[in-house]
Amino acid sequence: MRVLLTPLPLAGPLRGGEVELADQIRRAAEAKKPLRIVGGGTKAFYGRQVAGEPLSLAGHRGIIDYDPSELVVVARAGTPLAEIEARLAECGQRLAFEPPRLGPASTIGGVVAAGLSGPRRPFAGAVRDCVLGATILDGRGQVLRFGGQVFKNVAGFDAFRLQAGALGCLGVILEVSIRVTPDPRRETALCFEIDSDAARRRLCELMGRPTPISGAFHDGRRLHLRLAGGEAGVEALAAELGGDTEPLGFWDQVRDLTHPALATGPLWRLSLPQTAPIPTLGEVLAWDWAGSQIWLRSDRHATEIWQGASALGGHATLLRGAELGAEVFQPLAPALLALHQRLKTAFDPAGVLNPGRMYEAL
Amino acid sequence: MLDRFDPRLDGAFDPLDRARLIGRLGALLPPDRLIVSTESMRPYESDGLAAYRSLPVAVALPVDADEAAAVLKVCRELNVPVVARGAGTGLSGGALPFPGSVLLALGKLNKILAIDPIARTARVQPGVRNLAISEAVKPYGLFYAPDPSSQLACSIGGNVAENAGGVHCLKYGLTVHNILKLEALTIEGERLTVGSDALDAPGFDLMALMTGSEGLLAVVTEITVRLLPLPADVQALLVAFPDAGCAAQAVADIIAAGITPAGLEMMDELALTAAEKFAHAGYPLDAAAILICECDGAAGDAEAELRHVAEICRAAGASEVRHAKDEVERLLLWAGRKGAFPAMGRIAPDYYCIDGTIPRRRLPEVLARIGELSRQYGLAVANVFHAGDGNLHPLILYDASADGELDWAEGLGGAILELCVAVGGTITGEHGVGREKINQMCVQFSTAELVAFAAIKAAFDPVGLLNPGKAVPTLARCAEFGAMHVHRGEVAHPELPRF
User: In this predicted complex, what is the ipTM?
Assistant: First the structure.
């Protein structure tokens, strides 16, 4: 006879708010009426518009578990990002992927669903790299828990990582556990006058050796570098590079897309290999991610931008400024789209969770 | 026994027309790359989990993706299950063939196709050995970070299938964090590209989903890996503790102090004693537990970090702190740790390696409970683990020739895994579910979750031909196995009658 188990701390029957959310999904699935999943509403501009009844997660909030020695925070989806970051900061920790803070209402569920990572992405990983587990409601209103609270976990498919960037199309995130990282002991910001191509070459050279870089942004004229790590490494690199020091606060503009080059107007995001040439598809406003995320303004047809990005081994997203109903993400090859549709059906057979938010056909 | 495929519990397939299958495959592959005789197939009858053995109908050895695609198309057409295999070093029976299946061995796809030292990437075939990548890029001052203990022999394709970790993944991440793009084949033999040469790709993150999918979704034929610069300085400490609980506390204190060691390993008394006799690493034999802590970084930073670690360990009650004074000493410390598994072979005829992960703070109580279970089952357990990330490797010592001891070892292993789940952890940190832990999946996941996994699989492989009976159990299996389990306080499958 094997040992009987005690119930898991986070498991068990649905809590009050969850029951209502699950019921709303079940009703929508029965009626085949789409739902528009809403957290803080700060990323409503991102992706395609969904005409549907709102399913609000904002009330489903609160940090469930945070122990600095575990490097993990577990929170309900509606927990404000600001609340989580403040809590981590008290213990000298942070979110490694530095998600953009697009407004005070921004929620952790929205951060994961959007999958947008900030300037530290090339150096510390993306949202999906830090997601350790997710509890979701699927399109039948069932609670599913994938992953957990531990970094090393290979039981079952990584359906929790799949939620990162899926824009709610594969489930309504109820809870997420996220790996956090300690604050660096030393952090400093520098800037240099250097043209874009030379800066990208220089970065490849610097990143080919063990240098403590945590941000590399070019505003069209100057390269802004952020160094983070141990005292000795940061000081040695700062001494080697020279340049002008600038306030670390500069990086908030890069992270939150409030930098003057990015703050207004339509905005294309090109994700390219770091060594690809920067395409002449429009006006390069700036680049981040050490040259692998390019911010572009262009009045060319979207298809031209997608083809141009694809030819260079990358892809393009119209982050802001799309016409209603238009596609904003790089189109998928037919076989890949069909696979996406089958996965969507697996999680959401009635197609009620944010239908069309990512692609019209999804 | 789990080495027997059970059509009732694992899924039934059409009756096999062996001659027709071999005839069709024979038209695709020359005789030296299509193995069909029992004797020649023996080396393929198990992977690193040697307790489970079984022979396939045939072993196919394609040399490129086109040949692999052709084999898959034939298997799909004839409804024959396919088990992909890399180097066969996996520890969970993920590459265990079944009677009636074709074993698709990818070892001949073993070329490093391109190294781009500027972009810090390498494009490799799945049969390339893990360590061969780091060796090939070393002249550029780069390395491939995930370093499972089998890295000398294991293949990168197998690493992707298992989402392999290793000693340094606390700082450098798992396989999923260190790859950019996968080329794969579906069961239909169609090519599928996921991820990209950029840092992300449009649509769902299928690369992350496929990493660690244990050969159930697709067959990977090419991998683009991310390379990192070799650290400037690497330093290591050996710390001895008079009590395992103090060592566990020190681990939590190190992490809470904001230090991310490159490696943080722990061994208990039984493990360190055996390892010392095997490797003569200089481990203190009077300690109840030791930690090996490695820090890397810029010159000066690694040393400063280790000094801080040493202070923390002393405060937690360390009886000895020894800083490896040079590279020879550092490598010797690791030689003992890396020799821990073979060392067990010297003190017991057989050992069974468990692979659970737990939240670090539960370490002291879990170690105590493993001790109780060990006494209850009458089998010794040595504990070796990646303490930094809570990944335990209890080694159950047994004698397979003694009547029933393997069953007891499996029973004890299962009880330890269920303990891991009960404290909020998982049944496998890095070895994969494979065949070995298929029953424990019924403990960790609910019916609805298992149905979701099956639906994910069906989205890729609608007929269920890729590696059936592994990683994701059928509900029939869980109903049978789970009859005595309580899942999260609820009886599993209440809809089913109990006898």
Answer: 0.95
